[in-house]
TrEMBL record:
InterPro entries: DUF3054 (IPR021414). It comes from Corynebacterium callunae DSM 20147. It holds the Pfam family DUF3054. This is Integral membrane protein. The chain crosses the membrane at residues 36-57, 69-88, 94-116. Keywords: Membrane, Transmembrane, Transmembrane helix.
Length: 121
């Protein structure tokens, strides 16, 4: 699989994470709409892009592999996403949000790679 396909799948996986978060937490102050979903997705997507720019593309890693590519994308998405979220909201994210963001993004970013590995055998 080429790196651009992997990047697209990672962007979709993080987009699903953001969509699930918006669905779970929709309220009058935070309605489920395209604008809200996009601004939830954007910080974590920035982490995905930075992982590709800093680690995957320069090192020419096999981007469909869980180690080290998937773990790098996941770590960058979570750390950068939560950091940007904190700056945007003027507060450190609640610990429960950090746990859910870390777990859900791991399932999606690492999960598609595990599924690809099984299917490609």
């Amino acid at each position: 699989m080429n790196r651009w396909t992997s990047l697209t799948i990672d962007a979709i996986a993080i987009g699903l994470f953001a969509l699930f978060a918006r669905v779970a937490h929709q309220s009058a102050e935070m309605p489920l709409n395209l604008h809200g979903w996009f601004f939830t997705w954007l910080p974590f997507l920035a982490g995905v892009f930075i992982a590709y720019l800093v680690i995957i593309l320069p090192a020419k890693l096999a981007s469909e592999r869980i180690r080290p590519a998937g773990l790098s994308v996941w770590a960058f998405a979570v750390v950068i996403g939560l950091t940007i979220w904190g700056f945007n909201n003027g507060a450190v994210p609640h610990w429960s949000f950090m746990i859910v963001a870390t777990t859900a993004s791991a399932i999606l970013v690492l999960g598609w790679r595990a599924l690809f590995k099984v299917i490609s055998r």
